[in-house]
UniProtKB/TrEMBL annotation:
This is Secretion regulating guanine nucleotide exchange factor. GO terms for cellular component: cytoplasm; nucleus. GO terms for biological process: negative regulation of protein secretion. Pfam families: WD40_RLD. Residues 292-311 are annotated as: Disordered. RCC repeats lie at residues 11-64, 65-116, 117-168, 169-227, 281-337, 337-388. The keyword Transcription does not apply. The keyword NAD does not apply. Residues 13-384 form the RCC1-like domain. Keywords: Guanine-nucleotide releasing factor, Repeat.
Length: 396
């Protein structure tokens, strides 16, 4: 995330990849295998500071704390007060007139953190992911998560669960998306409350650390501490937790030796893989590899071969990355002023003009003349705010 908003002069906003719900904001529903400039709704002119995507929707956070939203809306995940699909970006004020500071998108729900430290949610609540309890099925209006009385400073949305960090140093979790896997793995022992909660529940086992941020996969959770330690819990089906157990009910710290011995400064999560950057600027990846999402040639591809052990390994070409974004199984990175992509590419989300998976980070040809400033991913689509420079970049 950028530290502050970006002025609009000379900026262009691009989107590409899956578009069956209009999540690219280009007024149609056809996939794009190369970046297309988005002009309707003027996203580049809104001083953007955060780009987020869900299963089929996009949410852009402006410097004024407002939202630009488009895409799938069948559960009200756009927070517009209705459930009609939107194929161009629409401006949405913050809930209750408050400015929004952070946003996170799950599969079919959205979390909004305001400048008052208050957390709101909208969209599906089929798995308790809105954090407002039963029996609400969904909401097209952002609802305040009132049971979370502490000031929130960070948030993350998984497939059907959510996480929040509070200013007092606590981590809360809600949503029942992990409950079924937990029940199978832990039987006959009971499932811990934080894995099966309809309202925010304190995550135990982190009281001795200072949480700095959280991230979420489809069925796993991540906490990065102020000291640079990475804690993981949840499903370990693809060895994404760096242990041999099938499921971790409580947070467990990753051995720093696996990340080159230094503290981590950032961690990003796809559905089943993770990417971390250390204080030396080195970037490591681990977890599921069969779409090339780890960015390491030689890992198993779509041939059905067995998965590698869950051991983080450094990704060539990503040293010094200033920002990374993970979709479900694909990634974007800003390195040396260039925008790179790799991983799953069935809908063209890697932006290289093909639908062939990409096994290692590669520059996006259509954006070779653009300077990337902000990046974001949905499950199967990509977004970037770029500045004009050099050769002209691709247009719609």
């Amino acid at each position: 995330m950028a530290a502050g908003s970006l002025a609009s002069e000379g900026l262009r906003f691009f989107a590409w990849g899956a578009n069956s719900h209009g999540q690219l904001g280009q007024g149609h529903r056809q996939d794009r295998v190369e970046p297309g400039q988005v002009e309707e709704g003027d996203p580049a002119g809104r001083a953007l500071r955060r780009l987020a995507g869900g299963g089929g929707h996009s949410v852009l956070l402006t410097g004024a704390g407002q939202l630009l939203v488009c895409g799938q809306n069948h559960r009200g995940q756009l927070g517009l007060g209705h459930t009609r699909e939107v194929t161009t970006f629409h401006l949405c004020p913050g809930p209750g007139g408050q400015a929004v500071e952070q946003v996170a998108c799950g599969w079919d729900f959205t979390l909004l953190l305001t400048d008052r430290g208050t957390l709101y949610s909208c969209g599906s609540n089929a798995f308790g992911q809105l954090g407002v309890g039963r029996p609400l099925a969904d909401s097209a209006e952002p609802l305040q998560i009132q049971s979370l009385s502490e000031r929130v400073v960070g948030l993350a949305a998984g497939l059907r669960h959510a996480l929040a960090v509070t200013g007092s140093g606590h981590v809360f979790q809600w949503g029942t998306g992990l409950a079924a896997q937990a029940k199978r793995a832990l039987c006959p022992n009971p499932v811990p409350a934080h894995l099966n909660a309809w309202e925010p529940c304190l995550v135990p086992g982190l009281d001795h650390v200072a949480p700095r941020g959280v991230a979420a996969g489809a069925y796993h959770c991540v906490c990065l501490t102020a000291g640079g330690d990475v804690f993981l819990w949840g499903s370990n089906k693809h060895k994404q937790l760096c242990v041999s157990l099938p499921f971790l009910p409580l947070p467990r710290c990753v051995d720093r030796a696996l990340l080159g011995g230094g503290p981590a400064t950032a961690v990003w999560s796809g559905w089943t893989h993770l990417v971390a950057r250390t204080d030396s600027g080195r970037v490591f990846s681990w977890g599921r590899a069969d779409y090339g999402q780890l960015g390491r040639p030689g890992d198993p591809s779509e041939t059905g071969r067995s998965q590698p052990a869950g051991v983080p390994a450094e990704v060539d070409g990503l040293a010094g990355a200033t920002e990374i974004a993970c979709g479900s199984e694909h990634n974007l990175a800003i390195v040396g002023g260039r925008l790179l992509s790799w991983g799953w590419n069935e809908h063209g989300m890697c932006g290289n003009g093909t639908e062939v998976n990409v096994s290692q980070p590669q520059p996006i040809p259509a954006l070779r003349g653009a300077g990337p400033l902000l990046i974001g991913c949905g499950a199967g689509h990509s977004m970037a705010l770029c500045e004009r420079r050099g050769a002209p970049a691709g247009r719609p």
